Amino acid sequence: MGWAAVTAVVLAATPVFVTRGDVTPEAALRTEAEATWRALEARYVAEAGGAPARAPATVLLKRGETLLPSRNGQGRPGVVELRQDSAGVLDVRLRVALRHELAHQLLWWACPASAEDRLFHEAFALAVSGELAEWREAPYQSLASASVELARSPDVDTPRARRALARVLNEDAGFPRALTRRLRRCQEGTRWTVPLSVGELAGHAERSVAQATVVLSRHSGEVLFSEGAFRTAMPYGSTLKPFVVAGSTAAPPVLAPRAEVAEWMCGERMPERMDVRTALLRSCNGYFLDWEGKGSAPRAFGAWGAVLSAVGLSSEPLDMADAIGLRATLSLSPWGLAQAYRLLAEARPDVLTWLADNAARGTLSELPASRDYAGVATKTGTVRDEESRPVLGWIVAVDADLVAVVARPGKMPRAFADEVPRLLARVRSQHAGLEAARVQVLGLVSPDSVEARCLGAGFVLEDGTPRAVSGDFTKLEPWVKKGGAVCLGSPWRVRFPELPAGRDYAGVLTWSPPPPYAPPAGVPTSPTALKARKGSAYVFRTTRLQYTAGVVTAEDAALKGEARVALARVVAHNERHADERHPGRPLCDTTHCQSFQGTVRIAPEDARALRLPALRWREWLTFSKGGQEPWTQTRPRAQVESLLGRGVTAVRFAEGRVHYLRTRNEGGAVFDAPESLPCEVLRSTLKLPACPRSAAFEDARVTFQGQGQGHGEGLDVEAAKASGAPQEQLLEAAYGAR
Q1: Residue 64 sits in which domain range?
Q2: Is residue 604 part of a domain?
Q3: Is 9 a residue whose pLDDT tops 70?
Q4: Residue 730 located in a structural domain
């Protein structure tokens, strides 16, 4: 239909706009509303292919008395409420709000069937009100994070949700094609049975299947390998069946197979009764459909529906056929699928144990590659066309450290089963230190002062059930006391009063209170040292490589070359000797163990260090910043004597200890007795840069002199930097005599 014809159609379809004097000037407001309506209806007619037969109703334009601060307008059928900051002025914000709210009025008139579809209404209003250009100027937001935000706010009633919706709408250069299709359905009178989804709005349904591969770390969540369309949402086949099982709050049934039903054709030698474990391994559609028929199956994946929605599931399944991919109506990206399986592996190790049998007695059994899947949990999926030909094959593989998702167009999973073990081996050869490392973190701060935020999709696993957490900074302690806290698609951002900006932790946070700690008798210990030696209730799991890089960076962020390789090898070695610092528990993140301040960028030297063989020493290896820079510091004599005792003389420092004579009076006899303490006790208590080389006692003070920083034992990092020697020589010089 040409625009001249469109204009002729709409001239007689403008509603009567009524004002009552509380938004002024009234005449100008009505004129603005009439012009806006004509433009909106012209857009509707152009996209829908025609105009509604009935005339629009009267619309009241009034001042909004109950508008939230974040809103400039709101409405209901027949009523538009506006914010006017200055009487008699129709400013830009008011005009935009008017256009936005009149777009809703037009849909309530022209497309009443969509009245409950909030996403459709808000998408149309944003698309036609002129607001998108403003949103394009906002900071960049990924499409994945926009989808997560819209899943959190399905009513699209917050500025963050509208920003996310604008990001999705901006995927289209012109008017969104998904809205055009929906408007045509309005005009045709089609029933509005399925609400608009983010996937549909972003054009997911129009995208063809594609080859894709992605591998994540189970521990840190980082993407270790990717190729192809791994961010593209595609029909997922049977890969989400484990989430149906995980979402069930009741024990899944044991069912009798029905041989006459095609969906029960699930392999040879069918058992007389099938349990859920066998149904998963055989990927038996009939079992899941009959489970739904009994009325006890979870709807829309139960608690796991929120997880799948957060990682990009195109919309909520209407029934079991949607959920298990029997109908290819929904889609999910390989990246989203990998993220979901990462959380499933954390929450439901029992389900992963079942899937570990897949290569022995499931859909990947009796293949030449089957034996290569030892220790790997797998789930397959196949998307078929109307003639049952494979359109897209999937394999999800999860081992102790990795989650891999492989999608291949036009292939059954069994046809490319040999690729996956090779993929896992290749990733391990390219990335050292992928195994788990655990560390007690944040032990020097009060547990109830720690807050965390996930910019991806955050979940707490409460008895194996995922519970979504707020995207804003929230107290961490109540979360992790319920279960492990996992942030999908992003590191945790953790802050506390002493570090308001916070720092990143890419991994899993759990709660494990340490046992009581009593310092050795007679050894003075500062409150800070007591906290460090006790440990923390917060336990963080990441990869050994991420942990090693974090410690090295905390020690010296500028460290490079052979010295960094040497230190990284020592750090990784000590991670395997945690019992020497905290028996039966992980290392702490303080200098009592090795300082760790969260996730950092990995340096090439860190990765190189973890590819090298394990060090030959079998005990904890000390290191310090060291160096040759001289220093002089004074401390009150009373503070020093509170540590060493009164009447101290002949103080000297050797072999990592402070030696001194202390005057004693026993049984009337006065004598000098030799005593000593670890120099690290004196250094840490008095907060000296390093173990001193000398101490001069004066009337009311003690002057210490030394050089470098740290306890001065083991690897001297500054000296290693200055030497330029190969890392092997540096390590032998530091520890060879042990």
Answers
A1: 3-203
A2: yes
A3: no
A4: no
**Structure-token pair, residue 533:** 């030696």
- The Cα 566–Cα 615 span in angstroms is 10
**Alpha-carbon separation of residue 614 from 238, 575, 611 (angstroms):** 42, 12, 9
User: Could you tell me the two tokens for 177?
Assistant: 């094609």
Q: How far apart are CA 20 and CA 76, in angstroms?
A: 17
Q: How many domains does the chain have?
A: 4
Q: What type of residue is 246?
A: A
Distance CA 87, CA 23 (A): 7
Q: Please indicate, yes or no, whether residues 510 and 611 belong to a single structural domain of this protein.
A: yes
Q: Which one, of 550, 536, 554, lies nearest residue 450 by Cα? A: 536
How many CA atoms, within 13 angstroms, populate the side-chain half-sphere of residue 425? 8
What's the gap between Cα 269 and its chain centre? 43
What pLDDT shows up at residue 167?
73
215-252 pLDDT, tens digit per residue, is: 999 999 999 999 999 999 999 999 999 999 999 999 99
CB-neighbour burial class of residue 631 (10 A; exposed 0-12, middle 13-18, buried 19+): middle
Which distant-in-sequence residues (6+ apart) come within 8 Å of 573 by Cβ? 614, 615, 617, 621
Closest CA to 596 of 548, 535, 543: 548
Q: Which of 413, 430, 447 is the last residue of a domain?
A: 430
For 5, what's the count of Cα atoms within 13 Å in the CB-facing half-sphere? 7
Domain at 50, CATH number: 1.10.390
* Best CA proximity match to 314, nearest among 207, 412, 413: 207
What's the CATH number where 261 sits? 3.40.710.10
Per residue in 619-667, pLDDT (tens digit) is 999 888 877 788 899 999 988 988 888 878 889 988 778 999 888 877 7
For residue 69, name the pLDDT band (cuts at 50, 70, 90).
Answer: confident
Query: For position 574, what pLDDT does the model report?
Result: 96
Q: In whole angstroms, what is the distance from residue 352 CA to residue 360 CA? A: 14
Bridging pattern class, strands 694-697 and 701-709: antiparallel
Same domain? 693 vs 611: no
* Residue 719 counted as domain residue: no
Cross-strand pairs, 636: 701
Convert the pLDDT of each residue in 321-351 to its tens digit: 889 988 777 899 999 999 999 999 999 999 9
Assess whether 472 and 578 both reside in one domain: yes
| pLDDT of 687 | 83
Residue 414 tokens read as 């069994």
β 59-63/79-82 pair status = parallel
Give pTM, 2 decimals.
0.69
Residues 6+ apart with CB under 8 A from 289: 263, 320, 321, 326
Q: For residue 409, what are the β-bridge partners?
A: 392
Q: How far apart are CA 564 and CA 556, in angstroms?
A: 9
**What pLDDT does 7 receive?**
38
Q: What is the pLDDT of residue 236?
A: 95
Burial label for 168, CB within 10 Å (0-12, 13-18, 19+), is buried
Torsion of CA 40, 41, 45, 48, to 10 degrees: 70
Q: Is the pLDDT of residue 42 over 50?
A: yes
pLDDT tens-digit profile of 101-134?
999 999 999 999 999 899 999 999 999 998 887 7
pLDDT digits (tens, 9 = 90+) for 427-481: 999 999 999 999 999 999 999 999 999 999 999 999 999 999 998 999 999 999 9
Q: Tell me, what's the pLDDT at 137?
A: 56
Residues near 568 by Cβ (< 8 Å), separated by ≥ 6?
A: 548, 549, 552, 605, 606, 608, 609, 610
Do the domain assignments include residue 650?
yes
